[in-house]
Amino acid sequence: MLVVGASFAGVACAIEAARAGLRVVLIERKTDAGEKLHTTGIVVKEAADELARLGPLPSDLILPIGGVRLYGSRLHSVALDSPGYFFLATDTPNLMRWLLAQAIAAGVDVRLATLFTGAQREGAGFAVNHVGHVRFIVGADGPTSKVARAFGLGINREFLFGIEAELTGVSLPEPGRLHCFLDRRLARGYIGWAFGGVGVTQIGLAARQRRAGDTVDLDAFLKKLAQIFDLTSMKVVARRAGLIPVGGPVDPIAGDRVLLVGDAAGLVSPLTAGGIHTALESGRAAAHAIAGALASDDGGAVTATIDVPGFRSKQLLRCAFDRFQTDWLFDVLLKTGLLAIAARLVYFHRRGLLSRAAWKDLARR
Ligand SMILES: Cc1cc2nc3c(=O)[nH]c(=O)nc-3n(C[C@H](O)[C@H](O)[C@H](O)COP(=O)(O)OP(=O)(O)OC[C@H]3O[C@@H](n4cnc5c(N)ncnc54)[C@H](O)[C@@H]3O)c2cc1C
Fold it and tell me: What is the pTM of this model?
């Protein structure tokens, strides 16, 4: 089979499929998986568990973040914690290279600098340029998936756009916290963030993209943060940027011998915009579905699909946030503590009020 895209979803899928006994080619357009990143690389606890399935994660690639500090538009803030919960900041360039090394070790045929441009149906499968004949194609090629377009599958239509700078010469207060900033003018429909990552400080923001090409003003955000953080010696060493699909799962995500996973399938939480966990999870689930479907391949149509989260409550909250985000209201709610309760649910409890842990956590105060 062919997997297009060697990021979280593609590598997870390729490794699991190889472990299930399939011959797997994984192609990636970049020459180095760690270059030109478009993710902050914060891994939630559940994603860390998924990564651990792929191999023992080297400790020098990660740094635990134990809590959040949430700021209103006037930079009043509240600390949010949940005992036992953590995020991991990652050395993302080297995490991507480590993922690829795990794929090669699992027997995946990894081909970098190889662009998927299309495929022709041929017998029981496809003829793919630079690859040859394959029986199945997985589109793990991100938010604007070429695989989805080539086979008439669903495409993402709603996005946030995010930009982040990697900085040296900055040390933030409370280094073990993720600092998150609400500001409708700078980050409409999402937030800004700052944290001490592995070897660098990462500062970025994302906002709703209303028209193609809409961007965000990182310099204005840095200027705002200079009111509370010492940024006088900062040096920007790299930038990351990209689209985040927030419209929920695309439809259809699968066709005859093709399946989308990760961002290509729209599997990103519409509210938190976190997609690494669902990318890893959907990649792994896809591998099992495809291995099962190909086991009884008789040369006819082969459909393999995966369960996709509905994200219904998160989509409702996204809709409300898009429409009613108001700085003064959030500033008031921040002072009363009500925003802190809602924020703890969003940051620490994936299933929100459906989880018993959330109720126990909220009962703490
Ligand atoms: C600025 C920003 C910050 C983010 N921060 C976080 C975060 O901290 N935590 C979190 O959980 N989520 C975060 N996200 C979302 C998260 O990064 C994505 O959900 C996740 O990377 C999806 O993984 P993926 O493997 O599905 O796709 P991608 O990571 O988008 O990977 C797609 C891969 O396919 C390759 N590719 C594309 N087209 C082709 C082609 N035609 N041929 C060959 N290869 C191709 C690309 O080069 C890329 O390597 C962030 C997103 C952005 C934009």
Answer: 0.94
